[in-house]
TrEMBL record:
Designated name of the protein: Uncharacterized protein
Length: 64
């Protein structure tokens, strides 16, 4: 189970977040860029939250 403000980093973390419909915050270079929502999809490079795409290698994804 994930805790609030836990960073999603592994592929499995993103899969579990989708299944459990976790809401996430997206941070880039230490600044919150999106108060996010549920992750709807992800691949090796991007995470899709609703209709927005965020690069995994430049963003952090924190559980709300």
């Amino acid at each position: 189970m994930f805790k609030e403000k836990q960073i999603l980093s592994k592929e499995n973390d993103f899969d579990e977040a989708i299944v459990n419909k976790l809401r996430v915050i997206v941070r880039q270079y230490g600044v919150t860029v999106d108060y996010g929502g549920e992750i709807t999809n992800h691949d090796d490079e991007y995470v899709k939250i609703q209709e927005k795409y965020f690069k995994k290698n430049t963003c952090e994804f924190l559980v709300r």
